[in-house]
Amino acid sequence: MIFLSAKNGRVDSEDRRSRHCPYLDTINSLSPFPTGRGLKSHAYIHSVQFSHHVFLNLHTLKFYCLPDNYEIIDSSLEDITYVLKPTFTKQQIANLDKQAKLSRAYDGTTYLPGIVGLNNIKANDYANAVLQALSNVPPLRNYFLEEDNYKNIKRPPGDIMFLLVQRFGELMRKLWNPRNFKAHVSPHEMLQAVVLCSKKTFQITKQGDGVDFLSWFLNALHSALGGTKKKKKTIVTDVFQGSMRIFTKKLPHPDLPAEEKEQLLHNDEYQETMVESTFMYLTLDLPTAPLYKDEKEQLIIPQVPLFNILAKFNGITEKEYKTYKENFLKRFQLTKLPPYLIFCIKRFTKNNFFVEKNPTIVNFPITSSYFLQGTGKWYELQDLQVTDILPQMITLSEAYIQIWKRRDNDETNQQGA
């Protein structure tokens, strides 16, 4: 239940089922409130003590006047219910990327639907960044804007994971709502579902890793939609899943004599093997940043072209991987690219004492001819703050997660999300 602050006066009508209410023109705020409106309910007592009279049931989206306890039916309240539960027609969804039209929030500020700030409740900026990025991937966004796409999916009794689907859909509709009260949105309900469904692996009050959250969220969303590892696909795998071949070759222990190494390489155990695998994102490794710099290099930040670190997946480049007891050489060959390809640039190295960040700048091609909704602009979103950013400034940032759109044969411009 939500009460809408409406003070002063009493209801003169004797009809307790009145469709109109004299308190509507005094509504000036919305506040959460316990459910129920009976004589002993908190809402009823509050209405008597503080002269707050208009209440909204969040489940039925019906308005009531307390303590008189009649339903209010008035077209002026439609704006409030639409903000709480925005809906989109197929035509509206189809036009989202064709017209970049500023909207005016009810508090007077202007905003571009989809380019909307998210509250940082305490330490959830890592999740905000991922959610805002995913909200601007058109096919994923379009699927969740239309609740009919998933509301009838059957889940086992007692399963809570579908809560992720519901809350993500609600968040998408609020982010793209052209009739918001404010030019920002609270992700609180979405984050509560994340905390619950991840069993507190990801929290609101504790910083988390963006890549870890992205990986968990995409897989959890896929599973909650009824997807499986191999056979049953969902919108998540349709948009982000690619495939590759992984070639692995075991290496002899480096401390062994050369002759023994040579002999071991002829054994079946040390022959190269290949497996087919799917992926939701690709992890890109950065060159090791120099530990020490001379005076002339103090202000120089290392740079590397994106295509250099993508060589890891060309099917030829080998990389050594070490486990507690054994060493392996691996190479990766991409066999299928998804419509949207996620790069996770490995900037952070953890050890027993601290987390070290690699500041190397990754250079990649930028075009200003296309971004969201055909505006020709790029935007920087930091929680509530939304600002334009020059395309040439983007590569100077320490990119961590990137989402690239695959260019179809009939497209002439490279497009990124």
TrEMBL record:
Residues 1-91 form the UBP-type domain. GO terms for cellular component: spliceosomal complex. It catalyses: Thiol-dependent hydrolysis of ester, thioester, amide, peptide and isopeptide bonds formed by the C-terminal Gly of ubiquitin (a 76-residue protein attached to proteins as an intracellular targeting signal). The keyword Metal-binding applies. Keywords: Hydrolase, Metal-binding, mRNA processing, mRNA splicing, Nucleus, Spliceosome, Ubl conjugation pathway, Zinc, Zinc-finger. This is ubiquitinyl hydrolase 1. CDD domains: Peptidase_C19M. The gene is USP39. It holds the Pfam family UCH. GO terms for biological process: protein deubiquitination; spliceosomal complex assembly. One of its GO terms (molecular function) is zinc ion binding. Residues 116-417 form the USP domain. Its main location: nucleus. It is found in: Nucleus. InterPro entries: Papain-like_cys_pep_sf, Peptidase_C19_UCH, Ub_carboxyl-term_hydrolase, USP, USP39, Znf_RING/FYVE/PHD, Znf_UBP. Its EC number is 3.4.19.12.
